Structure formats: structure tokens, C-alpha cells
Input
Amino acid sequence: MSAPAPASRHASPAELLALCERAVARARAHGAAQADACAEGSRAFTVRVHGGTIETLKQSGSLGVGVRAMVGDAVGFASGTDLSPGGLDDLARRAVALARFATPDEANAVPGPAEAGEPPPADLELHDPAALELTAERKIAMALELERLARAADPRVTRSDGASVSSAGGAFALVNSRGVARAWQGTSVSAWVVVLADDRDGRQQTGVEGMSVRRLADLAPLEDMARRAAKRAVSRIGARPVPSARVPVVMHPDIAGAWVSEMAEAWSGEAVLKQSSWLTGKLGETIASPRVTLVDDGTLPRRVGSSPCDGEGVRARRNVLVERGRLAMFLYDHYHARRARRASTGSGLRGWSGTPAIGTHNLYLEPGDESPEAILRRVDCGFYYDDQGSFGLNPVTGDYSFQAQGHWIEKGELVHPVDGVTVAGNSLDMLRAIEAVGNDLTWKSSFAAPTLLIGEMTVSGR
Amino acid sequence: MDAPLPALSDLLRRELVAELLALARAGGATFADVYGEHAVVTGFALDESRLKTASYSVLQGVGVRAVRGEQTAYAYADGFAPDALREAARVAARIAREAPPAAAGAGPPPAFRVVEAPAPFTLQDPATLALDEAAKVAILRRADAAARAHDPRVREVSASFATSARAYLVANTDGDWAEDRTHLSRLVVSALALEGNQRQESFATAGGCVERGFYSVERTPETVATEAASGAALLLGAREPEAGSYPVVVCNGWGGVMVHECFGHSMEGDTIRKRTSIRASQLGAQVAARGVTIVDSALVPWSRGSFRVDDEGTPAQRTVLVEDGILVGYLWDRLNAVLTGHRPTGNGRRASYRDYPLCRMTNTWIEPGPHAPEALLADVKRGLYCKKLGGGSVNPADGNFSFQVTEAWQIEDGRLTHPVRNATLTGNGNDAMLRIDGVGSDLAIDGATGSCGKDGQWKPVGVGQPTVRFTGITVGGTAL
Output
């Protein structure tokens, strides 16, 4: 079986800038006092294999534009993929017409050149020619190899639930009516594998492992991913609930990273303005253990969430949200920054089909100096928490309650696998109760945290 | 008011579709299909009593799929330009380029047959097209005012009204030709209540495939807003849940998200064919308590999960999955049905023309039983009544599930004593349906709320059940 040729090139930054210029000009012509346009073009190719053969091959390609028009301080928005002169004109006309139904608000504006700032001079290394040159044949071979290695890693791995490898390239452009024009391009490569191990009573246990990176060279060796997936599945064999108890909890970096990403909304300047964040009114206060420094940095070279600017053209920066336990700042896009009489923090994230919304670039908890093994040895009796269900953090209260899997800890050792339990607490209490921060920060996506020891949480079981 | 949707057969002529199918099959694929779509999506959002979002988007394009055995290749193009569609078809064809040409079936189908399927319901004046911008804004303003007026502790209100009007066309190398339209609209109101240093939020929804009059008769903005506002105010005085494993009674309607997650996903044909689901070997076995009957059907009037033909052109149907506790049938999309010798059940669904179809649920529910809902509470000594559920998820391979319960009540000696917040239910889907020990008579299907995610594709679904009681569900909480 042969495979498709490499995906055609995505649209160039220059082409996208030209599209945005035309869209902004049309919006102005239809009566917008201010306007911006955002365009994205991307190409992706995804391979999924299962049981040693190809399951699906998918080529994706998109090119779309979104136009935001401000008329009398009110905003309208339209987006689409018809980029002909008539199509762009229709989007601009609709955006202007829709603004008539919105509420005038003097905080509505697009940033000027001084507010946007110059893009960082250093190359963020987001665009990897090697990722674009990764052929479909090579991706198929990688996915098959990843699945084969994961199945072979342990005889107790009886089946695979598939492996996938994908690569993508894309460009982004933003132009506004105050003279800000920005464009950049980036690539991504990702690989995932899921294996199954038989357990008693016809049950089975799963092991998932994978990552998404900007550059091919940053992808972990397939052997490592395969081994971790297999280890995860077989280590769960014989898992059982434990009695309910309040105990110390050691969070695996995957779990700690997921918690950090779920908490991010509490730092949204919009949520704080509306008092819907559990951090409302706590700026400057100590909200976490002094071991905690939480950073959102859009300027880290090679990272998935990095970009020279946000979706409004404002320069990306390093934002320290919590500094040694002290709540140092909140995140703003241009609109909410104006409402709060502050400057945008470069956090107005946006795709072509939507308006800017406050979000994070690369959000991470800074590593400490203790090894995960040393952290485990500190625990006399507790829960090592390394997998979870979805949904479980209340963004308004910070209440945390997740279905959990992992291992029971006695005298610093993992003694048996655990499932059928939940782990609950409140994020503010948990931040304050962080007793150890590991040295094992690993990036698998746009958020990350090292191993954490939380002094006490409630494990609910039998 | 938006322009009516275009007729897709005008944008995609039969000759072009036949050519695309022939191109897609040129590499030796045994089956190919073409899926064209034109969707108009609008969104209006009122927040802090300001109309902040007024948006309009068009999504249109064509996806081409080529299938050979268990293998699928997929490519798509935005818009309907014939050359871009031919390119997509050629990319899809390459999946099987080096295989020997199929002996029969190469080339286009000899002729298309229009798929005959009765409409499960018809809309005279769908809210998607009939409500103009001013009408949508008026709905949001009424919701905002009603939520604020309901309780002085309601500090902020967000209300959004979203519509999606979608026309789609499917044609395949078997000669099937099907077209359908769906008209979804939804009002969501969320209210934030503050008191002292307590803050709580609650939301309520209304909608489905409904007429414009739905929002002035069946579910008014005031009704929805009051539900959200009273929910948030109630939670201010709620207690933390008791951690442990004990009886749980789940409300009717949206409570059916439990059967969707705990059971439905493990019945989808892809996981059955690949034997990654524990249900693959359980046909004819008892998988739920006696008296429990579970159904999936896309024929439910006015629901988000309903349609006339699925996204592969198969007519919608009612499929019984469990009859009186016994597993009697699975859900099948076309690919997995053909590979296992079953008939497709109309469960091939895709998020848009940018995605290949997956085997998905439509509207899934537990049929009513004999008990009055109050009777199910009456003999619980100590337990939890779940009145509002939030999100839920399951890992179909190992069966572990969890649900957020956004509003619950403590049951003591058969009575609801006080509200409980922030509970999480967890357990294993393998035995959750066996733990049912009482099914109420009050079936309700929620066709307004659900969106189901699978492999990165989100699709509207309906869920339902009568009041159902489970024994021994693990409840996550901080109180011991």
C-alpha cells in the first residue's frame, strides 16, 4: 500500500496578511470605525494504525478569515472560508451590520502600534522544515512502530487500541485598522498510543501515552513512549478501591499539569472583573505555598503555545502569575485590560472563526529540586495519583473532585494499584498544601507541571 | 432573519459527484462516499447586561472518503470549486493505490437512488431562520432581567442564543443519494450568585430542533433564567458531599447522561468490531438489572440528536440495545456494520465535512419502569439525590466513568434534607447498569443540552431516563 504525497503547502504569512488587509479595508468601507481581521491557513496529515495496519489516513487543510468590526463602540463579527473578493466583502458587510445589535462599550477597541508592541526579535523556532518534510510513508512507519513497540514492551499487553502520528504546518495573520499587522508560521508533530492489558473478571486496563511538539527533534523516542504506555496499563492490573480517607496525595506530572491548566480560568481578567473567579480580590495575597511559582510564557522557544503575538497582535510575554506563593497578576486581552485600566498581557487568544478570548500560551509550574522518588519516600501512607476522568474543577469555586486512578503508598513505596475512587479538595487549599515540588517538569503540550506532593486531600472509595 | 439554506444538489451536481466517486475509487477502494455541507452558525451573547457578541459564520465544503477493508482515507475541501473537490478525491484514492484494482465496482455507480426515509418530524418555521437578530437579542434581554429579578444575590448573568442551520448531502458508490437539513437552536443562561465570601454558579438550557414559537410558549426566557438563578442561589447554602459509596437516585431527563457515558459508548460498533469494548462478547448476556430497557433512536421529535438520515445517508431508526436487562443489539455505522456482517443502524455521524464519520449515539435513554419517582426516594435511609448533572466522561476500554453533580440533595430516611454541591460520581460502567435497583415511570428526554465528544469530533445528542436509583455508587467529596 502506498500513501498520499506530502500535503501541499499551507498559505504563506504574506498571502494571509494580504487577505486580512483586504478584509479590514472592506469593513472600513462598510462603515466600521475600527476593524481587525484574523486569517489562518493550515495543512495537516494524520495517520492512525490499529492491529498492525493502517486504520485511517486524513488530510486536512483549512483557510479562513474572521472580521471584527466596531461601529459606534459596538462590535460585530463574521467568519467564513469564501475568500473571493465577493466573499470577503460579504463577511465585512455582515460584521458591520451585526454591530448594530451589540451594546456600545467604550472599552471596545483594537490595539494601536504602541499598545501592541514590537514582536520579540529572537526566533522562537516555531517553524520546523523537518516537520513539514515528514512524509506520509514515514508517519505510517512511525505509527506502526510505536504500536508494535508498545505491544512488545510487556507480555501482559494483550491488545492495542491504536497509535497515531500527525504533522501539521500553518500560518496566522492579524491586521487591524490602526496599523498593526503581524504574521507568523509554525509546525507541530504529535504521536499517541493506547494499549490494553487483560485484568481479572474480563476487565481490561488502559495505558495512554503521547505528546505534541513544534519540532520533530523534540518528539520523545518512540521506545520511551511505548514503554510508558505499556507500563501504565500493566501497573493497573488488579486495581481496587481503598476506604475513604484524608491522606497526602502525590500528583504525577500529567495530573499536576492538567490541574494547572484547569485552574487557568481563575487568572482570567474577565472572570475577576465579573467576580466569577475564586481568586477575585486576592491580588498581592499569599495564595499558595512558597514553593509555588506559576508562569504563563508565550516566548519560550520551540513550545507548542508560543507565538510572537496574541490574536490581537499584542506582543507575547512572560507573565508570572504566582511568585513564590504570592498572587502577582491576572491575564488580560485588550478589551478587559481597558475595562480594568491596565495593559493587555498578550493573552487575547483567537482562531480565525472566533473573537479574542483570554487564555494562556505555555502555562507551567516551575520545577523544584527534589526527585519524584524522594518525594514518594516522604509519604508514610497516601495516594499516588496518575490518571483521572474528565470534568471535575469548578471554575467559580475552585472545588476539585476527579475520578482517579493510581497506586496506594505505604512507607514510601507503591503497594497496590487503585481505581474506583475520587480525589477531592479545593484548589486554594491544595495550592497552600503543596509540600514538595519535583524536578521533573516535562512538556507534552502547552501546559506542564512537575510531580507535586499535596499535604492532604480526600480520597473517596469504599 | 437569515436567508434560507441553499439546495446542495444545486451546488453539487450529480455528474460531478459521480466523477468524484470514480476518482476516489480509482486506487482500488471498495467503497467511497462524498459528503457536502453548508452550515450557517450564528451566536449572540449578553454578558454583564451588555450584548457583547453578535456573530455569523458560514461553514461549507465537501469531504471525500475512500474505504478498502478496514482502512479509510479522507480528504476535504472548503467550498464547492470542482477542481478542489477533484484534488480531495484523488488524495482519498491513494489509500489503496498499489492494491490490485477491485474486480467489480470500480468507477462511478451506474445511477443514484434517492434514499427513502420518512421525516421523524417537520418544522414549519424553525427558530434558526425565523428569529431575526432583534428577536434573539430580545430573548437574551428578557432572560437577563428575569435572572436578576429572581434573587438579589444574583450578581452576574450570562445568556447566549446560538443557532446552527445545516444542509447536507451524502452520495456513495452503492448508488445511495440522500439529503437532509437540521435546524438547531439553544438558549443557555448562567447565573452567578454571591453572598459573603461564597460564590456559586448555575446554568440552564432550552432548545433543540424547534420552532420559533418554542421560546415564547414551551420554554420562555423567564423560565430558563429562573432555573439558573434559583440554582445558583440554592448552592450558596449547600453543604459538601459525604465521601463514600452509597445509594444514589438520579433525576429524569438530563440524568440520562449516565446511561450515555456508562453504557452507550461501550455499545458503539467500532469498539465492538475491534473488541476493545467489554460488551463485544456480551450479546445475549445480562448487562443491566431486570426491568431495564435501553434504546437509541434518532426519531425523537424536536431533539438535537435527531435527523431523518445520518451523515452516511442511512435512514434514522430506533435500536433496542438492552431489553429487560439483556444485551440484544449494538450501534452500527456503515463501515463497522459491513465488516461484521450487520446492517447499519443509522449511527454514522460526523462533526462536519472536515471529518470522516464515526459510530455515534443519537438520542439514548432508559425506558420507563413501574415506580413513582417519590417511591424510589422513600425507602433510602441515607443517600444522594442528583438533581442537576454537569459533564461526564468514560474510558470505554476500562469502563471507568465520572460525572459532576452540580446540584444534589442529601436523602435521609426517605426525605430530601439539604442541598449538596460539588459531588462527583464515579464507578465502572461494566457494572453500573447492573446496580440499578429501581426505575421510575417519569421518562423525560433532554434534547436541548447534550454535546458528545469522540476522537475530537463534537456532535449534538439527546439523553434521557426516568428517575433511576443505583446502589453503591462512589460519591467524591470532602466530608468524611
Observations:
- Residues 133-150 of chain B form the longest helix (18 residues).
- Residues 8-41+56-114 of chain B form one domain.
- Chain B has eleven helices and 24 strands.
